[in-house]
Amino acid sequence: MANRITELFNIKYPIVQAGMVWNSGWRLASASSNSGVLGLIGAGSMHPEVLREHIQKCKKATNNPFGVNVPMLYPSIQEIMDIIVEEGVKVVFTSAGNPKTWTSWLQEKGITVVHVVSSVKFALKAQEAGVDAVVAEGFEAGGHNGRDETTTLTLIPMVKEYIQIPLIAAGGIATGQAMLAAMVLGAEGVQVGSRFVASEESSAHVNFKKLVVDAKEGDTCLTLKELAPVRLMKNKFYNELEELYKTTPTQEKLKVLLGKGRAKKGMFEGDLEEGELEIGQVSGLIHDIKPVAKIVADLLFEFDQAKNKIMEL
Q1: Rounded CA gap, 228 and 137, in Å?
Q2: Which of 16, 132, 165, 202 has its CA 20 to 30 A from that of 187?
Q3: Partner residues linked to 68 by β-bridges
Q4: What gap in Å lies between CA 43 and CA 85, rounded to an integer?
Q5: 208 occurs within a structural domain
Q6: What is the pLDDT of residue 180?
Q7: Are 196 and 204 in contact (CB under 8 A)?
Q8: How does pLDDT run across 264-312, given as a tens digit for each residue?
Q9: pLDDT of the residue at 260
Q10: In the structure, what pLDDT confidence band is assigned to residue 146 with cuts at 50, 70 and 90?
Q11: What is the spatial distance between Cα 56 and Cα 26, in angstroms, rounded to a whole number?
Q12: 150: Cβ–Cβ under 8 A, 6 or more apart, which residues?
């Protein structure tokens, strides 16, 4: 399965394990890298020294390439970037900010830079900024998302039409069949998030993992567009948010209800009522919690099966 993505990251398979807040610690990243895909540590939920600890533990747990996902709205962004350089991380995925800010700085230090986008407009900006590849993420995805609600099925070919750099598809990809579909549409690799949430190595609380496994169609919704669009599992907190929306709230009132630490409370501490539970629509297709190695093996098996079936048509 060698292509521009496997060559860019020096990995066996063109699959990226998403760097998700409160889910993607060193255990998940190293297990992913050991399975032949690119593992990512999610820096968005880590204080700088916690990130350093996760990077160091990941280096001890795998000899294969891994990277760090960095939301650029992070308050300690310079310290985070300095730690990444000091610890010798070779791949950084950036999101939630202007790719021009850090791309050249990182590349000058020998780091491969990938930027996450939700539209053709931002894909072009990322390409102009000189990134090595982009992740185009459809609004099916969990967590923070694009305001335009462009689906992966539409977004990938639209982005592919306008960029020349390698393209990674994300949003709604949890099976080998979806991986094949994304690559048929023009992606050279896929980023998988929600499926890895329900893994044994994910740092998410077991309560959250079980909720993901039990999820059905329609159990998630994109909300909080006034602040930063995010796809959440429906629960008590989400219902309170919906009631507040009936009053046409100001941004300040939304911020008050959101408060601080909601995502940690839900995904990491397992409070399924008061927590913010970020997961993709594809959770309705996830039915078990299993090791990362098994998840990767299943993706590859399903990919080959789907490819062979199409060739028989």
Answers
A1: 15
A2: 202
A3: 41, 92
A4: 14
A5: no
A6: 98
A7: no
A8: 999 999 999 999 999 999 999 999 999 999 999 999 999 999 999 999 9
A9: 87
A10: confident
A11: 9
A12: 118, 119, 138, 139, 158
What is the domain count for the chain? 2
* Torsion 258-261-262-263 (CA) sign: positive
The token pair at 18 is 């998403």
Task: Provide CB contacts within 8 A for 248, sequence distance 6+.
Answer: none
Q: Are residues 198 and 238 in the same domain?
A: no
Round to whole Å and give the CA distance between 211 and 75.
Answer: 31
pLDDT tens by residue, 196-211: 999 999 999 999 999 9
| Per-residue model confidence (pLDDT) at position 228 | 87
Q: Assess whether 196 and 270 both reside in one domain.
A: no
- With b meaning 16 or more CB within 10 Å and e meaning fewer, what string describes 214-227? ebeeebbebbbeee
> CA–CA separation, 112 vs 132, rounded Å?
6
Instruction: Let me know whether 109 and 88 are in one domain.
Output: yes
pLDDT per residue as tens digits for the range 15-64: 999 999 999 999 999 999 999 999 999 999 899 999 999 999 999 999 99
Please give the Cα distance from 277 to 269 (Å, whole number). Answer: 11
Q: Containing domain of residue 10, as a range?
A: 4-203+284-311
What's phi and psi for 141, nearest 5 deg? -65, 155
This prediction's pTM: 0.96
Same structural domain for residues 64 and 183?
A: yes
Contact indicator for 65, 96 with CB cutoff of 8 Å:
no
Supply the CATH number for residue 291's domain: 3.20.20.70
